[in-house]
Amino acid sequence: MKGETAVAIYSPSAGIWGGGQIYIEQLCNHLNRLGLPAWVYSSEPGSFSCPARPMKSAASRGERLVHAWGLAGSLKRQGISHVILNDLASLWLAPLFRLRGFEVISLLHLYLQRRSENPLGHGRLAHFLLRQSTPFCHHIFSVNRDNITVLGPRVRFIGNFVPAWFFPPTRDHRPEKKYDFLFVGRFAREKNLPLLLRLLKNLRDIRGRRCTALLLGEGEELEPTRRLAEAWDLAGQIEFSPWVSREQLPKVYDRGRCFVISSLHEGFATTLLEAHARGLPALVTRSSGFCAEFVEDFGQPTGRAFVAEDLEDASFLGEVEQLLDDAPQLATACVDKAGRFDEESVFGPIVESLGQGKGRG
C-alpha cells in the first residue's frame, strides 16, 4: 500500500446510529468504489456496512487523546496517509494527527455553538479548543452551511445526500397517506420530541384539528415521550414504531403527509432529504441547522421553519394546516429539491481533496 492514498475515517462516537454514521458509511463505500482504500475506525465496527476496523472505546476527552496517539502510530504502520475526522467530537484531535504526519480532513455534521446559545452546545474550553484546532486541518468540509460563519471561509459547504434508490420509481408516484406527521430518528434529548407533541396538542386544542403522527425510532427518550403523550391525551393520535431496515424506509415515508424535525440541534438531517425524496414537505425548527434554509429559502419553499413560541400562535398553526392540505401539490418540488444533492456532487470535493479528483495530477 506504500505510496497509495489510503484513508482512515475516524469516528469516536459510540452507542449512536444516525445520519452522521450513515453519511460516513456511504462515504467509505464511495471511496472504495473509486479504488481508494478506506476504512471507518470505530469501537463498534460491526455496526457499519462498509470496510471498518476496530479501535478502543474512549468516553472522556483524556482517554480519547491517549488512544488517538496510539492509533496514529498504528495507522502509520498500516500505510494510512489521510485521516478524516468525523464531526466535532474529533475535530480537536486535528493537531495530533497533523503532528504525526497525516493529511487531515475534518468532516463536520453539526455546527459549533456555545452552550449559552444552545443547551446542547459546547462549554467555553471545548469551544476554544475546537476553534483553535481548525488551522491544523488541511481541508474542512461541512454538511451544514452555518459552520462557514462560525469557523471562517476555510470551511467548504458540501451538504448531505440521499442515494438514487431512495427516490420513487415514477414521477406520478402518489401513495395513500395514513398519518399527518412523521418523525424518523433517535428518541434523544436533542430531538426535542415534546415540541412535536406540543404541535399536535395545540392543533387540537387551539385549531380543533385532530392530527395523527407516526414516530419511528428508539432511544432513551422513548418512554418519557410515551408518558407525555398519555398525559396530554394524545395516545390515540400517535403511533410508535421501532426501527425498520433502511430498505423499508421509503414505504414508511410514503405513509406521511408532512415530515417534522423538532430538534434543538441538527446539521443537515439525512431524514429531511429522505422525506423530500419521497415527496414530503417538512416542518422544521430554526435551530436545525441548514434544514430551515433548505425548506424555506433553497429554491421553491417546501415547508416551514418555526420556533417553539410559534406553536402558541393560532395564525401560525393555521399555516401548518395549510401546509398539510398543500402537501400533494408540493410533492414534485420536494423530489426535485432532494435530487439536487446527489452522491457525486456531495462527495466530489472530498475526493478532490484526496488528490484523486478533477484538476489534480
What does this structure look like?
- The protein is of the alpha/beta class and 361 residues long.
- The chain has two domains: 7-161 and 342-353, Rossmann fold (3-Layer(aba) Sandwich); 164-339, 3-Layer(aba) Sandwich (Rossmann fold), CATH 3.40.50.
- The chain contains 13 helices and 13 strands.
- It has helices at 19-33, 61-77, 88-91, 94-99, 124-133, 146-151, 193-205, 222-231, 249-253, 270-277, 290-296, 314-339, 343-353; strands at 7-10, 38-42, 52-54, 82-86, 103-108, 139-142, 155-157, 179-184, 213-216, 238-241, 256-261, 282-285, 303-306.
- Helix 5 (124-133) links the parallel strand 5 (103-108) and strand 6 (139-142).
- The longest helix has 26 residues, at 314-339.
- It is globular.
Entry summary:
By secondary structure, the chain is an alpha/beta fold. It is built from 13 helices and 13 strands. Helix 8 links the parallel strand 9 (213-216) and strand 10 (238-241).
Order of helices and strands: EHEEHEHHEHEHEEHEHEHEHEHEHH
What's the helical proportion of residues? 25-40%
> CATH homologous superfamily of the largest domain - what is it?
Glycogen Phosphorylase B
CATH architecture of the largest domain: 3-Layer(aba) Sandwich
Task: Please write the CATH class name of the largest domain.
Answer: Alpha Beta
Rg over CA atoms: 21 Å
Number of strands: 13
The averaged pLDDT comes out at 92
CATH topology of the largest domain: Rossmann fold
Residue share in β-strands: 15-25%
Structural class: alpha/beta
For the largest sheet, list the strands in their spatial order. 3-2-1-4-5-6-7
Total helix count?
A: 13
